[in-house]
UniProtKB/TrEMBL annotation:
Species annotation: Marivirga salinarum
Keywords: Hydrolase, Signal
Source taxon at top rank: Bacteria
Lineage of source species: Bacteria, Pseudomonadati, Bacteroidota, Cytophagia, Cytophagales
Signal peptide: 1-22
Protein known as: Serine hydrolase
GO function terms (MF aspect): hydrolase activity
Domain Beta-lactamase-related residues, every copy: 60-332
Amino acid sequence: MKFIITLLIVSFLLGCSTEAQVYPKENWSTNQNPSQSGWSENELSSFNRYIIDSTQITGLVIIHKGEVVLEYGDIKENSYIASCRKSVLAMLYGKYVESGQLDLEKTLNELKIVDHSSLLEIEQTATIGDVISARSGVFLPGSNGGDFRRLAPERGSVEPGSYWLYSNWDFNLAGHIFEQETERNIYDEIEKQLVGPLQMQDWDRSLQLKNGNLSVSKFPAYHMWFSTRDMARIGLLMLRNGKWQEKQIIPADWIGEITTQRTSYKEAQKNAPVLKEDGLDLGYGYMWWLIENTTDYRLKNAYSAQGALGQNITVYPEIDVVLAYKTKSDYRRRNSIQTQMKVMQKAVEIYSPNNN
């Protein structure tokens, strides 16, 4: 009798483990009956209609418990993911922070960082940790636009680490620091840490190119091109705390670090008032946006990689869901930030596990 009870317990635990850790292999598997998992067919259809009628999104997937519950548009085509690149870079930092090769306390002075404009003495005390949390206090222009530098206070007026500003100078420098300290090319490292282990289906190394006006700043933007379904693999890796199948790809502690609040939504909105209009209250970690101040349990502890035009990877840990969508710029399509926030909300508002 004791042996039978033990077998039952082991079987139960194995069943729970299997359910909690579902991964795609060469291809994603599709939930053939999403209504039994809390996804009403009518609600999914209505959400799909919303995407068609009210957004410019060109590809979207919702992943629940490792399986596709909704697919829209072309999820295979590679295209520019804009600022989602920053969140991908944050993931790559993990193994090197863990090994000590990247020391987050190292200062810009120790790193010998020099741009066209010399750094002020106070700016040289900024650390790598300040840079990857957008709190360096260095308000130089980046080699590419699309940030909040226009809202920056006077140079030298704040202590590094004390003030948040979404600045491409910080983000591009984060890429330079990664390559300088690890002696690894960012794109090669994406292949090593992500593309191979996650069995990405659409990665094309030839598309990956750095760009920027190097007469403005010496540090180029490390632009990236991914497909929607490969972005979903990145989201699922985050959801599984850096683990893929039986292998720990990104240190679990590092996943916790990059999604830990470094800037509250209140501070972010104070320094960039335009964020008050977005529709969700977003704080900031290490190059990942954090959903805060929500009463919807489905959004609790959720976090997101976001890019211009409509590029997004959002992870909802409380309900085991990943949302990935993109808007291909070649089609001259664009979504407002407000639309992107609505999609992030609507995608999980249609999930109701008590009504399955």
